[in-house]
């Protein structure tokens, strides 16, 4: 199983992802510089959190034009697994690999707190080791994490079961009080129709050890690793 | 040619910044104000042979980068200087 993690100028959680995958989970990871053309075989490429290009213009708006994104788009289109975390999710929406957009938190404040997430679908490589309705605990840390999609897009997301994670309270209910940023329908993470591209605002890489208070993030990464164990990786 | 681009949030997209500014205006006594929305203003200098040519290129720039069509609308003005 070969992981890639892209570093854009201004990415900061690339190190967290690297630490989590290599040190906590013993995975093979290659760090990819945004200016390089994508080359090599990968099972899953991660777009990490941070403030790529300083969030100038719009979060993720400029990162989508980095040279590495040419290869990343082809990789995604040929079925390669792509995981976008926080700023990574924003980049995936800006690039059109995922529908909708992330806008300023409805409360206007940067939120940095643990949240409960409910697993909505398990027939994806990212959630196949989990159970429908299972609760996960991991942190969010963002100022622009409010997911927005127009009614037609939302209808399509529901119909194709592309909503993978929702913000919920400790009882598993998608209450307004459990929503840290105003995301429509408490949506925390979605996938594309082909189910090989997944974007989420919370940070699984910050929930990979008991020391950090939760190991639920590791469950997402290991779900991906389990699926890829038997696969032949697509060429980048 | 001087290009002035106005990017605004689509109707239906929540604008908490606009709401906060509206509340502040009310606090100052400007209670006649409603529905504040915050947008973006960009200015560019564009080298083009014709106005039509410039318009076409600016439209491309807006569609590809300067505005996100999921959440934003745009309009622009072109002048000789």
Could you explain how this protein is built, in words?
The complex is a heterodimer of chains A (236) and B (81). With 236 residues, chain A is α/β, with parallel strands linked by helices. Chain A has a nine-stranded mixed β-sheet with strand order 2-1-3-4-11-10-9-6-7, sandwiched between helices. In chain A, strands 5-8 form a two-stranded antiparallel sheet. Chain A has a single domain (2-228), classed as 3-Layer(aba) Sandwich (Rossmann fold), CATH 3.40.50. Chain A has helices spanning 14-24, 68-77, 87-94, 151-159, 216-228, and strands at residues 2-7, 28-33, 44-47, 81-85, 101-103, 111-119, 135-142, 146-148, 163-168, 187-191, 197-200. Chain A contains five helices and eleven strands; from the N terminus they run E-H-E-E-H-E-H-E-E-E-E-H-E-E-E-H. The model of chain B has no long low-confidence stretch (mean pLDDT 96). In chain B, 35% of the residues lie in helices and 27% in strands. The longest helix of chain B is centred in the C-terminal third of the chain and has 16 residues, at 51-66. Chain B is elongated and about 50 Å long. Chain B has a single domain, classed as Phosphoribosylformylglycinamidine synthase subunit PurS (Mth169, Chain: A), CATH 3.30.1280.10. With 81 residues, chain B is of the alpha+beta class. A three-stranded antiparallel β-sheet of chain B has the order 2-1-3, covered by helices on one side. The A-B interface holds A 57-58, 61-62, 65, 93-94, 99-101, 103-108, 146, 148-150, 182 and B 12-14, 16-17, 20, 65-66, 68, 70-71.
